[in-house]
Amino acid sequence: MSNGSSFPAIVARSRYFVNLPAIRALLIQFISFFFAFILLPTIWLLFGIRNDIIFTSLLQGVIAMSLSYWRQMAPWWRPIQFVFPCALVLTLSLQIPAGFFLAAFVFLLGFFWTTFRTQVPFYPSNSKVWDSIEKLLPHDKQIRMIDIGSGLGSLILTLAARRPESAFIGIELAPLPWLISRLRAAFQKSTAHFIRGDYEHRSLAGYDVVFAYLSPAAMPALWRQAALEMKPGTLLLSYEFSIPEASPSLIISPEFGGPDLYGWRM
Ligand SMILES: C[S@@+](CC[C@H](N)C(=O)[O-])C[C@H]1O[C@@H](n2cnc3c(N)ncnc32)[C@H](O)[C@@H]1O
User: Fold this and answer.
1) CA-to-CA distance for 56 and 51, rounded, in angstroms?
2) Is 206's pLDDT higher than 60?
3) Residues of the chain with CATH 3.40.50.150
4) Looking at the DSSP assignment, which residues form a beta bridge with residue 239?
5) Which DSSP letter does residue 244 get?
6) How far is the CA of 113 from the centre of ligand 1 (A)?
7) For residue 179, is it left (φ>0), alpha (ψ between -120 and 50) or beta?
8) Cβ–Cβ < 8 Å for 60, 32
9) At residue 247, what are phi and psi to the nearest 5 degrees?
10) Average pLDDT over all residues of the chain
């Protein structure tokens, strides 16, 4: 039996899966649903409330919020957990055709793909950030730069248009943003190249500049990968999120009051 399918490996993978925040949140909702139904007869008896679905979903929300607090989930999960059962009941009461939910699910799946695992959703950087990055690129030679998690491809398309002699590559995990960036590159006749895939499974060794706009959760692993693979003298850039283990060699504010752009000379 291979290592990947051995019993300890399956247990480790299941444990990892169950500990993903979105999966934990869903499990907590199931547990809260169960607890709400255990508590309901007593509450109905004490307060004379009968078969009230909104009350039941509020109760489930309160339990889910409390369990999320107890399990030390990130603070933003608490309001989400509280509102979720009520929102579900209210949405069902609108009697929207099931096809709408399927279409919304397929769209969100295409756009966010495995965000529940990576904890890096799509949100774009802006033109001020792209200008700051352009200024930091080596200007005396052709370069190879990659945006790891390139979203809709705007940064890479912009830089490819400004520096036609150099190679600009984007890698994106989610299929829909990747497809949009491919189409944009084709329509603009850009030299930018977009790969669909996981940057964690690709080497960062062949790049002069690596740019990341990810999330705090992704930074420690990115640093380990960059320190192992990037060549001396190359540049790792991260917008908004620093790396706790490594103090940056440069910090720039692309716009007044906005997040910083961090750089590490490898
Ligand atoms: C915050 S957005 C940044 C988009 C773009 N770089 C920008 O500056 O506008 C992060 C993107 O990284 C993608 N992503 C997350 N984890 C990834 C991974 N392991 N490999 C490739 N892309 C990833 C997400 O799907 C998302 O589109």
Assistant:
1) 8
2) yes
3) 127-265
4) 261
5) T
6) 11
7) alpha
8) yes
9) -75, 135
10) 91
Cα(221)–Cα(130) distance, integer angstroms: 24
**Which atom of ligand 1 is nearest to 170's Cα?**
6
How many Å lie between the centroid of ligand 1 and the Cα of residue 178? 10
Task: For a ligand 1 pocket test, name from 117, 122, 131 the mutation site with the most ligand atoms within 8 angstroms of its C-beta.
Answer: 122
Q: How many CA atoms lie within 13 A of 263 on its CB side?
A: 19
Query: Rounded distance, CA 196 to CA 217, Å?
Result: 21
What are 146's strand-pairing partners?
169, 210
Our mutation pick for probing the ligand 1 site, out of 120, 132, 145, 261, counting the most ligand atoms within 8 A of Cβ, is 120
pTM over 0.85: no
Please, which pLDDT band fits residue 1 given cuts at 50, 70 and 90? Answer: very low
Residue 22: pLDDT band with limits 50, 70, 90: confident
For atom 12 of ligand 1, the residue with the nearest CA is 149
pLDDT at 53 over 70: yes
Superfamily of domain 127-265: Vaccinia Virus protein VP39 (3.40.50.150)
- Cα(22) to centroid of ligand 1, in Å? 18
Mean pLDDT throughout 48-54?
A: 78
Q: Is pLDDT above 80 for 3? A: no
Pocket of ligand 1 from Cβ distances under 6 Å: 118, 120, 122-125, 147-151, 154-155, 171-174, 177, 198-200, 213-214
For ligand 1, the distance from its centroid to the CA atom of residue 77, given in whole angstroms, is 22
